[in-house]
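Hi, here's the filled form for the chain we discussed.

Project: internal
Contact: R.S.
Residues: 226
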Amino acid sequence: MTISTGNSYLDSLNGAKSGSSTATVKKNDTLDQKAFLKLLTTQMTTQDPFNPVDNTQMVAQMAQFSSVAGIAEMNTSLKSIADGMAASRVGGAASWIGKAALVDSKSAAPLVDGSYAGNVTLPADAARVDISLVDATGKVVYTGSATDVPKGDVPFYWDGKDPDGNQVQGPLTISVYAKDTAAQSMKDLKTASWATVTSVSSPVSGTTKLITPLGNIDPASVLQLS
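And the returned structure, exactly as it came back:
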């Protein structure tokens, strides 16, 4: 195969080599720096002294080759950096497995010990707050109440067992009813629940996700980790 350099003299040298019956065919058709310098030296020593190669053309050839070689080296370096970052990302995300993450959610899933826990955020002081957990049939399986509750996060916890001691399966819907100090129903109540990180999905191209009973969660959306 003939390698075109854009210079008629260099191309003729390549053409002569490819036409020889004793020439060895290389599998790699790229022109590396050593080969380029050898061809350039041959060009300079065998050129017609009465019609030498234009200096501007020679400098342009050298600059073009240096640019291509630099880009190739940069691509290799970037690939190495990307591989290192991918390995680091997987290792960092894997440390989350087995821990509980607090995330914004209207549902609650059982933790490792079968319990349910979370937070309700109040925008203002409340005279009374009722937090209930409701199963898929609409049955209220747990209710916790508190009075004179200041604004902010109100935690809730339930061991996950019914009156007979049986474990209640989730996920359960978080239902909140609250009245402010003027006995008016409060709105804009935010709920969050704790979920166990069971595994991690970290593709080479894509976003890392935490796999939990509440679904796949973006690590950036985790409010707290325990």
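Let me know if anything looks off before we file it.
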